[in-house]
Structure formats: C-alpha cells, structure tokens
Write a structure and sequence with these properties.
The chain contains 11 helices and 11 strands. The chain has about 290 residues and is an alpha/beta fold. The model has no long low-confidence stretch (mean pLDDT about 85).
Amino acid sequence: MIPTNLDMDTLRTFSVGMELGSFAKAADRLGRSPSAISLQLRKLEEQVGERLVQKSGRGLVLTEAGEILLGYARRILDLNDEARAAVRSITRLDGWVRIGVPQDFAETWLPALLGRFSRMHPKVRIEARVDRGNSLAAAVDKGELDIALTWGRQERQACDVIATRHAVWIGPQGFTRDPSEPLPLVAIEAPCSFRKAAVDALEREGIAWRHAFASPSLAGLWAAVNAGLGVTPRVAEAVPPYLRILDPKEAGLPPLGTLELALHTSRDRPEPPVAELRTLLLGAVG
C-alpha cells in the first residue's frame, strides 16, 4: 500500500492557523480566502483520518490528534524551509546581519531562532545585540543595526507593528496586595513601554503606587520581585518558573491591555540576508 503524503501547503496553513489562534487570521497572512483555508483543513483531516480541531465556546481548540499532528507539522515545515534555504545559500546568500532584540526574547526564543538561521545560511555572519527599545531603535537609525524588535514604536514612523502581546502582572509566590498601602512597583527604568502601561492603568483606576525598585535589566526585575519588593508588568512568555502571573481581579489590580511589537529595518529594501532573517522573525513572533 502506497503511504499518503501530507500536503506541505496544507500543513503550513494548519500550523499558521494554530500559531495565530485563528484560521481567519491565517487566511490574511497566507493570502487565501477563508473558504480555501476551510477546504485545506478538511483535506488534512481526510488525509490523517481524524478530527484535528473542535469548537470551544466561540473558538477552536486542538483535539488530541490535532496536538500530535501540530508537533510533527512544525518539524516537517522547519526541515522543508531549512532544506530550501540551505540549497539556495550555496550560491546566493552570504554576508552578515546585525539584529537587536529586547531582553524578553533574548531569554526565550532568540537562541533557537539564530541557531536555525545559521543552519539555513551557514555563510551569513550574525551579530546580535540585546538592549532596551529606545537604544535599539536609535541604533537602526544610525545604521549600527540592520533590524531590531522593540516593545512599542519608540516614536519611529518607519517601523512595522507585527504583533501584539497581552501584558500581565507578575509577582512572587503568595503575593497579596495591601489596599491600605501604595502598590510597590518594580519596573525597568524609564523610558519603558511596560512601565508606562502599568502607571497609566494604575492612575486610570485611582490606585496609589510607589516605585519600589528600578532596574536596567530583566534579571534585576526578577530578583526584586522574587525578594518580595513588589510586582512588575511583563509578558507571560518571559515569566520565570519561581514567579507567578497574577489574576488582576484576585490581586485587586487593573488589566494592562496589550503592547505592540514593532519591527525596525534600516532600509526599505534590505539586503537578502536581512530579508531572510526578517521573514524568519515574522514567523516566530507573528
């Protein structure tokens, strides 16, 4: 019996849809109609002989079969993209790329992303800088970086908002707020998008607060919060295992809303290595 070959295009649609949390968003990203995306999903379910997603409230969630297939789909697509890029790089792609990212991403997905890019394009040299958003945006303007990712636009018009993330309150284990005392706030030194979001939310709700600890680094924030000096605003992906995300209602704190993730590129038409890394970056955080 000849084995069924899973369609690469359909696997990519499935993977992108789950990453974005919506097949409607996947249709926009991939330049297809919602009906075409639905047909692809049904085709994939027919190929594997199992339901892959099911309704949950107003959204869709993966079935057990869907969870299994999604893991394989991502690995298959990664290998496909690496193989294609590696062959192309033999004759086409060399040079170097200078990239800047905030600390949140440097501590989470950046090493894997750069490792994958290096395997795909072994002739391209990479220089990475981890810094605060205003410094990274300024470095792009000065030509010191080719590409940078920042929280917020950093007052630059020449950037693309590529994603949004929910900001959350992070506190130590067992944190309880004393309503009779100003909230102790731990934050990156200004200017900082997370700090501004927290201060704006607290003042909007009329909640008294005080600066308990300021730090130029995430490591300093985590140490201060872990020591019980206060709470800090950040994204859920960056939370260390020894701290916890606070439920705003239970903690008596205002919701922080979302923050924009902006991509800054030094040229309208970047060099091929920069364009390739930019594409990989969009796939990782979009």
